[in-house]
Amino acid sequence: MSMKHAAGEGTRRKHAGLACIAAMAAAGAAYADGSDNSINDTWALRALAGYSRTGGTTDTSSANALLHVAHVTGDWKFLFGIEGLYGSTRGQTTAQAWDTYIQANYNFTPRLFWYSSLRYDDNKFSGFVYQATAATGMGYQFIRSDDTKLRGQLGVGARRLRPEMLTLNAVGAIVSSTGLPAMTDAVLDASVTLEHDFNKYTKLLANAAMESGRENTMTTYGIALQVKMSAKLSLAAGYQLVHNSKPPAGVGSSSSLTTLNLVYEHKNKDLPPE
Predict the structure, then answer these.
(1) Is residue 75 within 8 Å of 107, Cβ to Cβ?
(2) Given phi > 0 = left and psi -120 to 50 = alpha, else beta, which region is 56?
(3) Which long-range contacts (CB under 8 A, 24 or more apart) does 216-225 make?
(4) pLDDT tens digit sequence for 227-266
(5) pTM for the whole thing?
(6) In whole angstroms, what separates CA 9 from the centre of its chain?
(7) How far apart are the two ends of the chain, measured CA to CA in Å?
(8) For residues 124 and 130, is the Cβ–Cβ distance under 8 A?
(9) How do residues 30-57 score in pLDDT, each as one tens digit?
(10) Which of 76, 60, 65 is nearest to 21 (CA)?
């Protein structure tokens, strides 16, 4: 089915999605600043937001937001994350994406854990209406020193995805889209995350994740340099690359995002946010 995308509708969706993430981040920050240390000792939170706008011959604007929360109880660890992105050129939507995940880890030892996760990706310009994955497997904390934390996990799962054919105009906005039949396949699920403190003010965050199946392999790479301004607030410059191996014809296989963000963190030395 072909569908026209109105710029006004896209803008409303952008504001609603990013406002929701920002509201959740503010609520989490307020909760984390509470006075009950027995509760705070089991939580960690990382929230960030960024916005840019350029004028002149070509008006462009972009906004992004992220909220990651971690909670531990006994041998269980629960992770939640939601991210959103919007971009426009000459008043037309040229980027719009959001994704969310939830994961539960059970620690067999301080380093070895089992995980089960659910993830949903919705990128209007990727050539897929959505990609939803349920996975389970094993993970290991390779390094967990005060300065460096390196974790990897590997598992299997099932993914439901729906490709679509897109028609773009000269600016890069969607003129029409035609949904194709949804497909389900088995996937290999893998990820690696690294956090390294160079000193008490500066740290590096990096990650790589892959969902590989017969219908598509989606790979995500990210890196950010974060500089502390206060005990809770930092500035972060980041870069992300997303690659889909089998997008529909006419849709690019890779997209990248460069950001400069304000970051709020409620830290916990035993439970870094993820």
Answers:
(1) yes
(2) left
(3) 216/128, 216/131, 216/161, 216/244, 216/245, 216/246, 216/247, 217/243, 217/244, 217/245, 217/246, 218/121, 218/131, 218/242, 218/243, 218/244, 218/245, 219/243, 219/245
(4) 999 999 999 999 999 999 998 887 889 988 889 999 999 9
(5) 0.81
(6) 23
(7) 38
(8) no
(9) 444 444 444 468 999 999 999 888 776 5
(10) 65
**Rounded Cα gap, residues 51 and 76, in angstroms:** 36
Check if the beta carbon of residue 157 is closer than 8 Å to that of residue 187: yes
| Cα distance between residue 48 and residue 14, in whole Å | 17
All domains of the chain in start order, with CATH: 2-266 (2.40.160.40)
The distance of Cα 47 from the centroid of its chain, to the nearest Å, equals: 11
Q: Answer for the pair 258, 238: CB distance below 8 angstroms, yes or no.
A: yes
Rounded Cα–Cα distance for residues 234 and 265 (Å): 8
Instruction: For the chain, state the CA radius of gyration.
Output: 19
Residues 68, 48: Cα–Cα separation, whole Å: 9
- The amino acid occupying position 23 is A
Name, in order, each residue with C-beta under 8 angstroms of 180's C-beta and a sequence gap of 6 or more: 162, 163, 164, 165, 248
